[in-house]
Design brief:
The complex is a heterodimer of chains A (500) and B (122). By secondary structure, chain A is mostly helical. Chain A has one domain. In chain A, the strands form 2 sheets. A two-stranded antiparallel sheet of chain A has the order 1-2. Chain B has 4 helices and no strands. In chain B, helix 1 packs antiparallel against helix 2 and helix 2 packs antiparallel against helix 4. Chain B is mainly alpha-helical. Chain B has a domain of 84 residues: Orthogonal Bundle (Helix Hairpins). The chains are: A mainly alpha (500), B mainly alpha (122).
């Protein structure tokens, strides 16, 4: 009796933690003044669970309701994703602490947070389907929160495509069940049905914004309000990539396919980011590119997603206070210190400068890849540096000029520094410096990152010198028919490749 | 096994028809309707998967004696239970999309794709 008591408690803890955001959202609807504290409490709970998992005080496998029930896996793989979820959601809550928020924002944030936490620990296809749909619906409502005509269309597009691919995902799940009699991820490993694998992948690739299935991402992430973009680009895309990496661990046939798609996605996002003239769209294309790098390795992908998501959330949160979205003439417009520094640190982290988290993530990734892939990743990193170099070089606004005119009401002027952004920047620095001593061969890694930065700057001046962004007329692939066609092409391509 | 294959093929046809409608229709409302066609096909697929071992609902009545129960061809309850959740989710998404379409119809009552879809341009 006594021996299984701790296990019972641990199970109860996990269930309580997964239920908490949904109960809190319900409570917040009844007691709106408590909403911010409740949201923050949910994020803290998630962070605490992540730490508990890392320390080994929670069981790795949690089985609910027996063999046909739900299996959860609270293992080390989920830790970075859970931490990312807690960090980004709490930063968004803190960032908007003093501002009045449109009605259901915090409620939706809590539902989104709960759905994401579940998506990182579930181990069967149906629970994954349900959590991804919860995430999709709450993200859809969050995009709608600005209530502009444009956001109506963008949100409709997002949900229409998301639901279509998730329906295809369900067909894949049914085919797996037909063959193996189970919906667990282990059953997917044993399946011989190529169609099932292709359909499951189509769903997960779209949700993680990879390659042609991810073409919906730039418009959606760029048109949403800044807080929502931070959530979408920071964590929501990882809801697809975490299960994708879990599956690719278990199914050997998928490994090379996902690597190929990841690399293609990294290059595609990079080219479009280099050519884009809009700051928020550049950030969104870069998300597509970075997600490709996350998909390269299930081992290092988690920490890479954590460092990228944190940095990207910083960038999108300060994007709200950019003087304008056009990158043309970026160098002439001065930025206040509260934007300039986070912008610099966030982008340098994604590029991979030493004391920041991005450096450790890139070193981790290089450590587990084969040589040709490592070279490819280094080249992509150089391109990434060229992309972000377009943000550097704006002058720093020395004194704070009180903003007059726009907020004519009795609103307090916005503080120069947002606490939420500071939290994320601190997280980047702390994670980076804490993992620095464990980097394999630190000197060569530092030298490599310096070279990448230099090469990136060179590429940037070259691209700007040739006035490439204006000359490079890339095809517009973001119409609804292009997105649906892209999904069809990816599905057919997967069938062909897996059939070999 | 032949009827099972035939029904499977019919479902596949419905999925493809839905996807074709999603791609080819210019009207947003019809696009959402095509999405629902795929959804219905998936429901049918799960019902079919559940029915492959038998049609009787696996509910034991008190009167049934054990040997007879073992010999009956029971339906598989798990796909049926699973698809209930998916039906509810599909319905709610359908409702949300229709609400948004109602709002969009104020901009263009014809709901033509071209009046909303500007691709990457703002």
């Amino acid at each position: 009796m006594l021996s299984f008591m701790p296990l019972l408690y641990a199970k109860a803890t996990v269930i309580a933690w997964l239920l908490l955001p949904f109960l809190a959202a319900f409570l917040a609807a009844v007691l709106p003044p408590l909403a911010r504290w409740l949201a923050l409490f949910c994020c803290l709970a998630t962070a605490a669970v992540a730490v508990a998992i890392q320390l080994g005080s929670l069981p790795v496998n949690v089985e609910l309701l027996g063999a046909y029930g739900v299996a959860l896996k609270t293992d080390a793989f989920a830790v970075p994703f859970l931490l990312l979820n807690a960090l980004v959601c709490s930063a968004v809550v803190i960032d908007s602490w003093k501002r009045p928020l449109p009605g259901p924002f915090l409620l939706l944030l809590m539902v989104l947070h709960g759905g994401l936490s579940s998506a990182f620990v579930v181990m069967d296809l149906i629970s994954l389907y349900v959590t991804l749909e919860v995430v999709g619906i709450s993200a859809f409502l969050l995009i709608l929160i600005s209530r502009s005509d444009r956001s109506l269309w963008v949100a409709l597009r997002y949900l229409l495509i998301g639901n279509t691919v998730m329906t295809l995902f369900l067909i894949g799940a049914a085919l797996v069940y037909l063959e193996r009699g189970s919906f667990r991820f282990e059953a997917v490993a044993g399946t011989t049905s190529i169609a099932a694998l292709a359909l499951l992948l189509v769903g997960l690739l779209m949700k993680s914004g990879l390659f042609l299935s991810g073409l919906w991402l730039p418009v959606t992430h760029a048109e949403a309000p800044a807080e929502v973009s931070a959530l979408l680009s920071g964590v929501v895309v990882t809801a697809g990539i975490a299960p994708l990496l879990r599956l690719s661990c278990g199914v050997p046939a998928l490994g090379p396919v996902i690597t190929g798609i990841g690399l293609a996605s990294a290059v595609l996002g990079l080219v479009f980011a280099l050519a884009d003239a809009d700051a928020k769209r550049l950030l969104a294309w870069s998300t597509l590119s970075q997600m490709g790098l996350v998909a390269l390795s299930p081992v290092a992908g988690g920490f890479y997603a954590l460092s990228h998501g944190t940095a990207k959330a910083v960038l999108f949160l300060v994007a709200r206070r950019f003087p304008g979205r056009a990158l043309q003439g970026w160098r002439e417009r001065p930025l206040p210190a509260g934007v300039w520094w986070p912008l610099c640190i966030g982008s340098l982290s994604i590029v991979g400068l030493p004391p920041l988290a991005g450096f450790a993530a890139k070193a981790d990734l290089s450590g587990v890849l084969s040589l040709p892939l490592e070279v490819a990743v280094t080249l992509v990193s150089m391109g990434t540096a060229a992309v972000y170099a377009r943000f550097w070089g704006a002058p720093l606004l020395r004194r704070t000029v009180p903003v007059v005119g726009l907020s004519s009401g009795g609103e307090a002027p916005e503080p120069a520094w947002s606490l939420g952004v500071i939290l994320l920047v601190l997280a980047l620095v702390v994670m980076g410096s804490a993992t620095l001593p464990w980097t394999a061969s630190p000197f060569s890694a530092v030298a490599k990152s310096a070279l990448v930065l230099l090469g990136g700057w060179g590429l940037h001046t070259l691209v700007e010198g040739l006035r490439l962004p204006e000359k490079l007329r890339l095809p517009d692939l973001e119409g609804l028919s292009d997105l649906l066609g892209g999904i069809g092409v990816v599905g057919a391509g997967l069938l062909l490749i897996l059939n070999r | 096994m032949a009827p099972f294959r035939l029904l499977e093929l019919l479902i596949l046809g419905a999925v493809l028809a839905g996807f074709a409608g999603l791609l080819l229709r210019r009207n947003l409302f019809l696009k959402v309707l095509s999405m629902d066609v795929i959804g219905s096909a998936v429901v049918a697929l799960f019902v079919l998967v559940g029915a492959r071992s038998g049609l009787r609902s696996p509910i034991l009545s008190a009167a049934a004696n054990a040997p007879a129960a073992a010999a009956t061809a029971w339906a598989d309850p798990i796909p049926q239970a699973v698809i209930l959740t998916a039906i509810v989710i599909g319905l709610s998404i359908q409702a949300l999309l229709l609400v948004v379409i109602t709002r969009l119809s104020r901009i263009d009552p014809g709901l033509d794709l071209a009046s909303f879809d500007t691709g990457g341009q703002r």
